[in-house]
Amino acid sequence: MLVGLAASPSGADWPMAGHDPQRTSWAAEDQMPPATQPLWHRVIGPFIPSRCHLVTVAGRRGAPDLIYVPCAGGVYALKAADGSEAWFYPTEMPVGHSPAVVDGVLYVGCLDKRVHAVDARTGRRLWTTLRAGAGFDTSPLVVDGWILIGCRDGCFYAFAAADGRLAWHFRTDGPISHSAAWADGTVYFASNDSHAYALEARTGRLVWKSEKLPGDGFYGFWSVVAGARLLVPGSNNYIPGFGIQLEKLNRQEAWPEGAKPMDPIGPADKDGWIDAAGFVRYLEKHPLRRTLFVLDRATGKQAEVAPILWWGNPSGNRYPPAVGPEGIVYTNTPWLWSPDFPKMA
Asked: Does residue 266 lie in a domain region?
């Protein structure tokens, strides 16, 4: 079920998962709603995969603002004002992830092994690509006339946005279910072979391949470009139910001995900023417990240790960070102690 909430109109688009090719999840024109009073709700029959995000586009020339909803049966375009259906584009297999909307065209990766191009105003099919070796469950990037998207067949593809023609592909040693980010002519992503990659977006030439990163793979969300850094959210690398859980290890070993409920990880200054150097030392000592990787965007090497412990569902990657004003990175992490579970600060 979808619920429409009251909000101040900003006129801003959210044309792809993570907002922009850098996947920053923030734009200066975005506004927080002053209230969360439901305006409407709508039941969607087909299943909406948890990894899929709604994509919004402001109306132009009198056209309505639209919300694009990917689901197991295709893509709905709903009118933002009341949730009514503008159109529905059916697919034979489930949509794999959130679509991207660029220049009036909706680009959709689908588990039918194709990328679909759809008129964003009418829902009319424009073209589909040839079949890949497996389904697409990543969100496409559309930059400089190219569709850049990873596939579960282990290949990263570049298609021409005009007609779906294949421009190049690059093979990795594992399925690619982690959506890419782009900046300055380079596309960045991680594969389930546990490596992050940087490719020249125009040619597919390998710029760098990271060292093997710890964890249970990369199969949700996306990497984030933050200045000279690439932030790659990882996964819980300890299997729950086998007696060794990452959250339990962190609770036992990362926190100062004698920590009391709601104690922060380190001293806080008058403005509330917490010194998390203790977490840095802990993760330097236990590098296999890192779950947010900070890579040098030029080389792919780990540039620094983020003082961020595992937080999230054991069955997926941690949520990606957001890059806000002045380049400040925002993410969730337990920094306050609780006897039940470390609380987020």
From this structure: yes
Domain boundaries, position 274: 223-345
Q: How far apart are CA 98 and CA 51, in angstroms?
A: 8
Which is nearest to 117 in space by CA: 138, 142, 93, 80?
142
Nearest-CA neighbor of 77 among 130, 21, 2?
2
Strands 146-150 and 141-143: antiparallel
User: Is 79 part of a structural domain of the chain?
Assistant: no
Residue 264 domain-assigned (yes or no): yes
In a domain, 233, yes or no: yes
The angle at the Cα of 292, spanning 289 to 297, to the nearest 5 degrees, equals: 130
- Chain segment 157-191, per-residue pLDDT in tens: 999 999 999 999 999 999 999 999 999 999 999 99
Residue 345 pLDDT exceeds 70: no
Please give the biggest Cα pair distance in the chain: 63
